[in-house]
C-alpha cells in the first residue's frame, strides 16, 4: 500500500498542464476576507464542500492580493534584512520557485501556557512540527505535515482523554510525566486537476460538508483518516465521491493485524441553483472490514461514484449503516447567509406522524446565520447556529459500523441526544483579532449503565425504550462555554499568531457540577480546528 501514492503520482504527472490545487486550511479564524468573498451573490460557489481548492477560490476572490494587502512594509534597505523580515512576517518561511514549480516549508508551532482554576494545575502545550507544500506545474499540488506534541490539559479535557483514550482530534497518546500526554499526528495529500472539470485528491486528512461551525453530515472533528476524493464540476453542479478508511481503536484484531478497519462511501451533490441559493444532497454508507465470514475489505458494490447508496445496500441484503442528508444555504444582502442541514439515519413516516418518540426515528437538523460586515461595521463577523440531534443518531447495532472514527463522532463532537446554540463574534483591525465563542447546550447523558442515546459507540439494541424517546432523555446536563481570545497575526501565510485567551465553562447535572476558568497565552499556527468546546 505504501507504493500507491508514488504510482498515483507517476500516473497523473503526464496529464499535468491550469491553477494550483492546494487546499485552503479548514481553520477560518483569520480568513474573513476570503470567507466574505465566497459568500457573495455575484457568483455561484459551492461553499459547503470543504476544504476549498485554491484554484477555485481564485475564481471568486483575488487571494494573492488579499494576502499581500496585509503585508507589513519592512523598514530595511539591505536585501538580506528585507528578506529576513518578509520570511518572518509576510511570506512562507522557506520557499523555492521555478518556472513550473513552487515548494514551501513552514513551521507548525504551539507553545502555550496557562492555568486551570478547578484543578489548580499549570496547563501547557508544546507542539513542534513542519509543513511542506508545493505545486508541480499548474495541475498538481502536494502537502505534508507532522506534529510532535506534549501537553498537560485542563481538567475537563484531561477527563475526556482518559475516558476515550484519544486527544480530541489528534489521536492516541502515551503518558508524559505524572499528568501529561505525549502524542503525534500527520496529514498529507496529493491534489490533481485531471481535467478542466475534474479534481482527484488522495490523502490522509479531514473533510467537511456544510456551511456551519458544526456539520451534522461530515465534520473535521475526528482524527485524520485515509481517503480518496473525486470531485467533478459541470454547469452549476458539483459532485463529490469520497471513499474513506476509518479505524475502531477499542480493541486490536491481533498484534499483527492492528485495529479494526471500516470504510465509508459518501456521495454529495451540490447545486448552485442561483447565485444566492445552494441545495446539496448527501448519502453515505458505513461498513466494517470484517464480517461473520471473515475478511470483507472494501465492498465493490459501493465503489460506483454515481449511484444512490441506499438501494444498493438494500439489494445486497446488507446490514450496513446508511445515512442521508440535505444542506441548504441562501445568501441575503451582500455577504450574509442563512444555512441549514437535515440528517437522516433511520425513520418511518408513519412513526413520525404518530409522534410517539419511536427510537428509530433518528434525525438531526441545523439552522444558522453568518453575517460578514455585520450591521455595516467593516470586519465584524457574527454567527449564530442551532443544532438538534435525536437520541441514537449515528449509532448501529454493530458498533463497528457506527458513524465514528478513533473513538470520536464523524459529525458533531457531542454525539447525539442534544440541542445546542452556538454564537460566534470575530472582529479584526489590521492584524489584531478579537474572537468570542459562546455555546449553550443541553444533552441527555447515559447513566446507571443504561443507553439513553448519547454515546454513538453503544449498540442501539441496548436502548432504554422502544417509544417515548426525546432529546435530553437520561441525565439532563447543561453546558455553558464562553471563550474570549485576543491575538495578533504574525504571518498570514501560515497563520502564525500570538494570543491570550480566557475560557469559562460551566457544566450542571444532578450528579456533577463543574466550574472551569481557564487562562492561556502563547504562540501558535492556526491551520486546523481542534474542538475543545464540550
Tally the helices: what do you get?
Answer: 8
Mind describing the biggest β-sheet?
A: 18 strands, antiparallel, barrel
- The residue ranges in which pLDDT falls below 50 over 5 or more consecutive positions are 1-18
Q: Fill in the CATH topology.
A: Porin
So what's the overall shape?
globular
CATH superfamily: Capsule assembly protein Wzi
CATH architecture descriptor text: Beta Barrel
Mean pLDDT: 90
Radius of gyration (CA) equals 23 Å
Structural class: mainly beta
CATH class: Mainly Beta
How many distinct beta strands? 26
**How large is the share of residues in beta strands?**
over 45%
Domain count: the total is 1
Describe the structure.
With 534 residues, this protein is mostly beta strands. The chain is built from eight helices and 26 strands. The protein has helices at 4-12, 32-38, 54-57, 63-69, 79-89, 155-164, 309-315, 349-354, and strands at 49-50, 94-97, 101-116, 122-136, 140-152, 174-176, 180-195, 198-205, 208-209, 225-234, 237-254, 258-272, 277-288, 290-291, 294-295, 321-332, 336-346, 362-372, 380-389, 404-405, 408-409, 418-429, 432-445, 475-491, 496-508, 513-525. The strands form four sheets. The protein has an 18-stranded antiparallel β-barrel, surrounded by four helices. The radius of gyration is 23 Å and the shape is globular.
Summarize this entry quickly.
With 534 residues, this protein is mostly beta strands. It has helices at residues 4-12, 32-38, 54-57, 63-69, 79-89, 155-164, 309-315, 349-354; strands spanning 49-50, 94-97, 101-116, 122-136, 140-152, 174-176, 180-195, 198-205, 208-209, 225-234, 237-254, 258-272, 277-288, 290-291, 294-295, 321-332, 336-346, 362-372, 380-389, 404-405, 408-409, 418-429, 432-445, 475-491, 496-508, 513-525.
